[in-house]
What does this fold into?
Amino acid sequence: MNPRSIDASAALQALSTFSAVIDVRTPSEFALDHLPGAQNWPVLDDAQRAEIGTLYAQVDPFTANKRGAALIARNIARHLDMHTGPLPKSWSPLVYCWRGGNRSGALAHILARIGFSVTVVQGGYRALRRALRAQLEQLPATLQFHVVCGRTGCGKSRLLHALSEAGAQVLDLEALAQHRGSVLGLEPGTQQPSQKLFESRLWAVLRGFDPQRPVYVEAESKKIGALQVPDALMARIRQGRCLALELDLPLRVQLLLRDYAALGADRELLRQRLHALRELRGAQAVDRWQQLVTAGQLDTFTAEILQQHYDPSYQRSMSRNFQHFDGALRLELDGIDAPAFARAAQRVLTLAQAWPPTAAQPQTPRAAAPG
It folds into this structure.
């Protein structure tokens, strides 16, 4: 049995039909980006690939090929020992490498000789990336977005989670970007994915949505931390119907202190993050906020940064960027515990069933109290 080949666009369309997706590139290539759900079976690790490249450039291709073949054979043997033991003959993987097919072809040939039905992507990762980007440009236009708006600390992310728990379709951009979307938004000890991996994750989520049902998403800026939301997706979200979540300031402070507990516990890191606001808010304001953080007056600091930094530009920015914000339905939370967000989610789903025309005046329903 020989491996068969498939073009990148067809591979993406048929992705769910394969038993597994095997990325044979180096661990660093895999970490930068890979198809969602792919497993990394590197036939050369990073150091080995660099060694082969040096031999190719400084000695000759024949010497490089001999050394590369020996390394690839050893690595493939290790993967066979580690992974294929429990696999049935019906196992049918999709395999890809960077571009040329040498690395994927070597693994695919061995797997096919064993008796597995193996498919190799023509053009490898580079072709997959082009096809994925093309689909990512097209997918947003097929979806209808309901945009959860609200000032910082209103619990928009928590409402999205409650909506998801209630069975709604949810696009959580901040979760995919591993960032809360503000200058304070990166969780201590975490790192955002690469732009490419972020886009691959977006593609995987978007393609799984039912176009006949709404997709709930938080109102975001074009950048989430260091990552850029793709233009086609951002434009489509900004055309979506808006729901404005409202919460009193003291409760917003409580919610933020819970959500940023790790950052609040590291006061020096919090003080450092505030440096980025000096140009925008002035040295005097930032100095005061840093002093409040040092003194442990986090309630006062949080209230002040909300009122003086986050809130002032909110209304103007939302009206400018989100087409239907001025006619948004308004939902006032009656608490910040899990049941309050569950009640709010049910109210949102009820409202969405009879969404008024976009020109309708804002309404102010309140989440139902416990019965």
